[in-house]
Amino acid sequence: MHASAVQDIDPRHREIPLPFRARRHPRGDEAQRKTRQWAHRLGLIRSESALEKFDALGYGRLMSYAAPDAQDDDLQLLVDWNTLFFAFDDIQDDALLSGKRVEYERLRRQVLETIDQRGRRPSWHPVVAGVSDLCDRTFPGRGADWTKRFALNLEIWLTGHARESAFRSAAVSPGLAEYARLRRDASTVLPNCDLVELATGAELPDALYFRGAYQEIVAATADIMCWTNDVHSLAAELAAGDPINLVVVLVREQGLGWADAVQRVCDMIADRVAQRGGAERRLAADLAELGLPEAIKSAARRSVGNQGSWAAGMERWDRTDTIRHVAPKFADDHGHTGYAENLI
Q1: Is the separation of the CB atoms in 60 and 32 below 8 Å?
Q2: Which residues contact 265 (CB under 8 A, 6 or more apart)?
Q3: What whole-number distance in Å separates Cα of residue 40 and Cα of residue 257?
Q4: 3-state DSSP call for residue 256?
Q5: 131: how many CB neighbours lie within 10 A of its CB?
Q6: Which of 102-111, 277-286, 292-301, 329-338 bottoms out in mean pLDDT, i.e. has the lowest?
Q7: What CATH number does the domain located at 27-140+322-344 have?
Q8: Alpha carbon distances (Å) from 140 to 38, 79, 135, 190
Q9: CA 4, CA 74: separation in Å to the nearest integer?
Q10: What is the dihedral of CA 126, 129, 130, 134, to 10 degrees?
Q11: Rounded to an integer, what distance in angstroms lies between the CA atom of residue 17 and that of residue 315?
Q12: d(Cα 46, Cα 37) in Å, to the nearest integer?
């Protein structure tokens, strides 16, 4: 795979129209500053060069779209989780590039064990220490339904990561039928939607969360965001030899050219947006049928709206507000520094 093959179509700057209203939390920049301090204190960021580049990554700005009306502590929790999620993605890349797959798998299992213990796990490794800190801040005081869902979605993320790594190690793209679920599971959108829900100030009951309409909204949100990112990150992922990209899957499986494959992904995103709209209409009927308190109904509507805001905000962030898809990730042999640390 050659990144030069897609340079002429410039997928990173392709605007993908989404009908959702993007709203940013007014203190997103402050959340960015605080997550930088948090990551540096834990050791997720160590070198001066990575510290200097961190604000240009813009994780606080991205996640401020997902909780535009949240209390400051809830926004910060969401931003810090995502700083950790992105760092873990970088570790996955580093492990594959450096042949440290055994070390990566050991770390992945330590993270899963830390989640199972709901934190309370001292560790010298900054990722495990970070997960422990986040669990200590997230789980206490939550209801049983939400706690079980969030832990399950974190487990799905880590399992998706392991499966994604297996495909990448084999240099094989999953088939189209399998790709959507694999990408969705490994993306962190599912646990993030739980945190978006939490930031509304209420927890949804299982009776609503597991109904088809809400499940379809979350799944569609994940697909829209993942596939949008696949377009914008295509050149960077081709350069890294990463086969986990929907455009690559379509080129390999259906024999499309690069421009046609990018257009096909954009068409699939539009279809998913329409399906999400249908699920929103079904959700309105579910809310009426279940007879839930008005506070829960309002939280469900805000959660769905904020998921849409996050998707639209990410589409903009991908193109204009982060160096993640254009700057070198790791230091190279020529003395160029990267934005990510070697943590494995």
Answers
A1: yes
A2: 227, 230, 231, 246, 247, 250
A3: 43
A4: coil
A5: 26
A6: 329-338
A7: 1.10.600.10
A8: 20, 18, 8, 20
A9: 42
A10: 180
A11: 9
A12: 11
pTM given for the model: 0.95
49-103 per-position pLDDT tens digit: 888 899 999 999 999 999 999 999 999 999 999 999 999 999 999 999 899 999 9
Side chain identity, residue 259: A
DSSP 280-317: HHHHHHHHHHHT--HHHHHHHHHHHHHHHHHHHHHHHH
- Confirm or reject CATH 1.10.600.10 for domain 172-320, answering yes or no: yes
Q: How far is CA 311 from the centre of its chain?
A: 10
pLDDT at 263: 98
What are the structural domain ranges in the chain? 27-140+322-344, 172-320
Is residue 209 within 8 A of residue 300, CB to CB? The reply is: no
Compute the residue count for the chain: 344
